[in-house]
Amino acid sequence: xxxxxxxxxxxxxxxxxxxxxxxxxxxxxxxxxxxxxxxxxxxxxxxxxxxxxxxxxxxxxxxxxxxxxxxxxxxxxxxxxxxxxxxxxxxxxxxxxxxxxxxxxxxxxxxxxxxxxxxxxxxxxxxxxxxxxxxxxxxxxxxxxxxxxxxxxxxxxxxxxxxxxxxxxxxxxxxxxxxxxxxxxxxxxxxxxxxxxxxxxxxxxxxxxxxxxxxxxxxxxxxxxxxxxxxxxxxxxxxxxxxxxxxxxxxxxxxxxxxxxxxxxxxxxxxxxxxxxxxxxxxxxxxxxxxxxxxxxxxxxxxxxxxxxxxxxxxxxxxxxxxxxxxxxxxxxxxxx
Amino acid sequence: xxxxxxxxxxxxxxxxxxxxxxxxxxxxxxxxxxxxxxxxxxxxxxxxxxxxxxxxxxxxxxxxxxxxxxxxxxxxxxxxxxxxxxxxxxxxxxxxxxxxxxxxxxxxxxxxxxxxxxxxxxxxxxxxxxxxxxxxxxxxxxxxxxxxxxxxxxxxxxxxxxxxxxxxxxxxxxxxxxxxxxxxxxxxxxxxxxxxxxxxxxxxxxxxxxxxxxxxxxxxxxxxxxxxxxxxxxxxxxxxxxxxxxxxxxxxxxxxxxxxxxxxxxxxxxxxxxxxxxxxxxxxxxxxxxxxxxxxxxxxxxxxxxxxxxxxxxxxxxxxxxxxxxxxxxxxxxxxx
Amino acid sequence: xxxxxxxxxxxxxxxxxxxxxxxxxxxxxxxxxxxxxxxxxxxxxxxxxxxxxxxxxxxxxxxxxxxxxxxxxxxxxxxxxxxxxxxxxxxxxxxxxxxxxxxxxxxxxxxxxxxxxxxxxxxxxxxxxxxxxxxxxxxxxxxxxxxxxxxxxxxxxxxxxxxxxxxxxxxxxxxxxxxxxxxxxxxxxxxxxxxxxxxxxxxxxxxxxxxxxxxxxxxxxxxxxxxxxxxxxxxxxxxxxxxxxxxxxxxxxxxxxxxxxxxxxxxxxxxxxxxxxxxxxxxxxxxxxxxxxxxxxxxxxxxxxxxxxxxxxxxxxxxxxxxxxxxxxxxxxxxxx
Amino acid sequence: xxxxxxxxxxxxxxxxxxxxxxxxxxxxxxxxxxxxxxxxxxxxxxxxxxxxxxxxxxxxxxxxxxxxxxxxxxxxxxxxxxxxxxxxxxxxxxxxxxxxxxxxxxxxxxxxxxxxxxxxxxxxxxxxxxxxxxxxxxxxxxxxxxxxxxxxxxxxxxxxxxxxxxxxxxxxxxxxxxxxxxxxxxxxxxxxxxxxxxxxxxxxxxxxxxxxxxxxxxxxxxxxxxxxxxxxxxxxxxxxxxxxxxxxxxxxxxxxxxxxxxxxxxxxxxxxxxxxxxxxxxxxxxxxxxxxxxxxxxxxxxxxxxxxxxxxxxxxxxxxxxxxxxxxxxxxxxxxx
Lengths: 337, 337, 337, 337
Known about the structure:
The structure is a homotetramer. The first copy, chain A, is of the alpha+beta class. In chain A, about 15% of the residues lie in helices and about 30% in strands. In chain A, the strands form four sheets. Chain A has an eight-stranded mixed β-sheet with strand order 1-5-17-7-15-18-19-20. Chain A is globular. The model of chain A has no long low-confidence stretch (mean pLDDT about 95). Chains B and C meet through α2, α3 and β20 of B and α2, α3 and β20 of C. Chains A, B, C, D: GO terms for molecular function: hydrolase activity, acting on carbon-nitrogen (but not peptide) bonds, in linear amides. Chains A, B, C, D: This is Acetamidase/formamidase.
């Protein structure tokens, strides 16, 4: 098996702050392995506990994404698949912070209140890739604890529909900043194509994050990431979907959070009905008893919920089993690296 | 008093479907009167009860706006003022419709449900500008009733911040499709400037609409509209504001609807504190007892609420009394027309 | 015309803090005029700017309501009408306050955040019934301004369905603490009956309030109030409705606020369809163009929106024109007082 | 170790449909094992696919709970613990249904819309306790699949505060119908005490449910359940909490769903800060990176979210390690049964 492998650095000219409206920095054939570098959501400007992001970062130059990558032959009405082969922190430290008026447990610009902002605080995590852990160090006490690495990308998506250009921090039907821990190595993400080439961008690597990304940032890190990019002609995907070894997953991104839940469940019910040849009410019933519903983010300009269904209940494979083929490509690639 | 008056037609090359990302079609000096034409939200394609919008309109070519108009000297950090002098339906008919999965009392793409869409139905209103009425004719019975005209623009705004390009049907901090009946002749709208020239676009004229725009569309009409466009240097306006003869008004646009309410009230409390030299809690108290809070739209991709405060309780005038000067310009213009 | 008039004091044994679960303190025939006294929402314990409610009030003994009043013959499936004849502050002062973690622009117990509470502050208004004004006095400056009186009751309702007992501060399908300025003299309120006698309670008088009751309290006052209580056999009323000289109004109480909006508009569309013999889509259309949608409260444990429709567009009268008869009773009563 | 064991049947006189307002049917000492029977949410009235719940059930006699059980010595300001030892379906069948205007993907009474209800449909599951599975049988096709049993109780709680009486289908700060799959055997649930004796009621057994309980009902079954009931004097618990072998969990119940999320995360952050002696921002940070956030229910009159934190990161045990002692009691009980 011959695999085409290309690289994509995170040089400033390859970073964007929006989805849509940008020319591709790389064009690949379906099935290509892309080794890409991503910066952290602060653009690398926060390096220690005294680097308050409100001082060292400049809106709207936050949350850089690497790309966009055009996929040859991708047209509106198709689906692109992004299979994560490897996501690996490149520094021995990572950063998390509170940020004024951002997060789930603070007044924000849309949940507008008369409170002053919560204090802005930076946490610097030590990252040990060999031991596959990162270390939380409390700022107000000596407490410290190791957490397992579970690297993932908060921001993955394609150019939006309707000629829109959307900030990289805003998730939506095009993907973007969904901030779900499920976007880890071994997972395939599916996106509906809105423009020729699809124009995939990836960024916002996290050493790990909790569900909901409660304080607004995860353990943010620059990443060396490997993906396989592929194309499924003629398959529509209205909202981003994920597939892991064990689950198919629909995402929903909206406000209020119950609408994000509804979107994700509605998509999963329809998808499951298709895969099991059930009518919609039977699929609704089965998803209701067998599904999982974790939060993605409840902090960004839109919220994201996931709806998960166990693959062992399925009798057919989604998207003609592309996930299995992409895993095979990943295995070959890793064995040759 | 000499007034500069320019015209702007609704030719296809002057219509856009987004805010942001477009070059100006007209550049004017502050204080200029602009006579502009706008198409209806269907682009004029729905002319009778058999023209179902899902058949005769093509997404995303909905809700055309005329513009953008650049204002000389407008820079980020400034505010532009758009004073509505006259809004006049140009045809003797207007259209309202339900639209599949759009509206407040139907499942939508984000309030996703398993229901089939409600029936798509078109209502054609007779418009009599001389008598200043439009006529509702029921589709399922002989019932018919005249409603007073109260023409307004659903969509008014500027280019968004952060290099975003946003569909004209989506309201936000840049204005856009707020769909409030307060955007009528005699009102001044204020927008914070995000890009040089501000880039004002206007569309979506309504012969009238109820608060909330419940079914998703108003009495939609092409308009001959006259505005005065002006510039307030060095004044920031975080969310669109309105001023009428009797009220100052803050808008808030967000989901869920209570966040739209919070944004509008938060802005009004701060604005009132400034205008009355009150501390924020005193302003919070006074707005709580004297304010009004009507819905704008509860159907679009974002919802809009208004927060109104009576001007007779104010001791100073907002934006250095530009509203009074714009009304004087309007009076002069109308007397010379 | 002979009118039966009975009195009801606000003695502690006639005050309750819940809807449901209490025996009637008065039983009246339909058509009876009731002269009743109500305490303010603080139970009269806050008398000056140093009486912080969190110190002088004791949860759950807040927001006392006078009643319940049983209506002879009222059974589940009927509707009771409460027509407000007169609402008159009984003291020459009234109180408004912020309260920790209560209000629209603060973190609350359900919109839970890590912020400390906003400062608790008391405003004491001078009330001049002769001149029909109350005076706002800023706490942090010399600013002072008179506001017109517009007396109303924040809390009016009946015993809930399903054997529930609900705190008087919580609005719902049974009415309760809807906090809409529309509940003023001249208005008739309609409630569906859930238990024999209906069990009406009234409290929480306001000298006036803005829409939304933004800071969480209005200009709170003890009231001398006169109502006519009546019964409409066999008429169901799923959510509280109001009728004034000019409008019929449906209320909706729920969270998020768009659900309160949906409930109110859904009820108004159905009601209008009935009154105009329209099918539901024609009524949806007409309400969308002719209706108003002000906020009631956006601060209580449930939010309330109103949906208003102008009576001059109706061809029949709601509830067999009981509003007109109740106004006649009110006129007779007032002429004899 | 001597264990006191008492039984409690599900006779009609021991079933209630509310939390609060009822006398205890059993009073136990702290540490008592209670073997109790519960009916399913339909009161056993739905036995086959032709028993539509809207016909065979009568509102408000839905969702019966067994109890209330008074705990000797429990006073407001204390916490009661309910440890689930065993939950076992008692019939060889179980039921799930859609129900008109109830569920996450349908218009409801509060998310009010003009759609007709979705079809009402009943699914009858075969339950095999020996093999610990239940079988889904599609209604519109031959498809059938086994799902593992994961028995739990949807409804567990205490009498509410403020003299309220709340329907058993409504979750809140008192617990009630939270509908989380985490309420399974091996879990301890903690509730703040609002009235003397606490007055615990339990019902709504599910053979299993997905997160969110999307269609509105789970695999509903009558249960033979064993709990240990205990008392923690002087410990307050503002919202229900759970503890399993691996996680501590806070619940939040509110609308919109982001408020349920906020409540649960706010409680978990405070709880974690206490257990790790962290300041609140350090706890906010740690929970953000290490927590899980699954949906409980997104269908009931209030929504429930969970916030989970891994116990292996804790340095102290919650509630003085009562969970370990209750598990020991459970082990002893099971060895003696």
